[in-house]
Amino acid sequence: MRPSVIALLILGLVLGGWSFAVQGPLPLDLAITRQLQALIPVQSAWIEWLLSTAGWPLIVVSALVVAVFAASLANLRGAAGALIGIALAMAAERGLRMLIFVPRPDPALIQVAKASVSSGLPSTFAIFYGAAAAALVLASSGKRGPEAQIVRWGAVALLVAGCVGRVAAGGHWTSQVIASAALGALASFAAMYLVRVVR
């Protein structure tokens, strides 16, 4: 098993399990959120726009864009792996939401752009983009051309920007988005292995 897979598994299980056990912010969550909110306005329009790309109906368009880039980099197997990974990640997101509840950030502690009573773990955005970014990183693995570099780093940049935005908007704690992104990435690792893009 690849060290990166083991690291993602540990990250997802430790942060996710700890967050579930504590039912609140983990150490550093509060400090990180306050620092980000000092830099990024809570009601930033770009955060809401980026969030919408992982929500219905734009999530379908986003998944198809990921599949097109994966196909360009790793043929039809890459596209199939990307779509299967995203489907696995979103199935895990639905299943976890039925099984567990972890509170979102409390407006009494930080600024919250949009209050919600739904579970903060998993983060729909982070799990989707974790799967999408991992699929594109794996599809571009071993390739050095400009397309591979742009797709690889563009996918990672969107994941990081979106997760930072979700935390800055008070939608999730940092630990929640990291655990969710790790779970999404694991789903793509499994799918890419299944279709033999990853050996």
UniProtKB/TrEMBL annotation:
Q: Short name of one Pfam family for this protein?
A: PAP2
The alphabetical list of record keywords is: Membrane, Transmembrane, Transmembrane helix
The residue stretches assigned to a coiled coil in this entry are none
Q: Does the keyword tRNA processing apply?
A: no
Phosphatidic acid phosphatase type 2/haloperoxidase domain location, by residue? 81-196
Do you know which InterPro entries this protein is assigned to? PAP2/HPO (IPR000326), PAP2/HPO_sf (IPR036938)
Query: Where does the chain cross the membrane?
Result: 45-71, 78-100, 120-138, 150-169, 175-195
Q: What's the name of the protein?
A: PAP2 superfamily protein
Name its species.
Blastomonas natatoria
The root-end lineage is: Bacteria, Pseudomonadati, Pseudomonadota, Alphaproteobacteria, Sphingomonadales
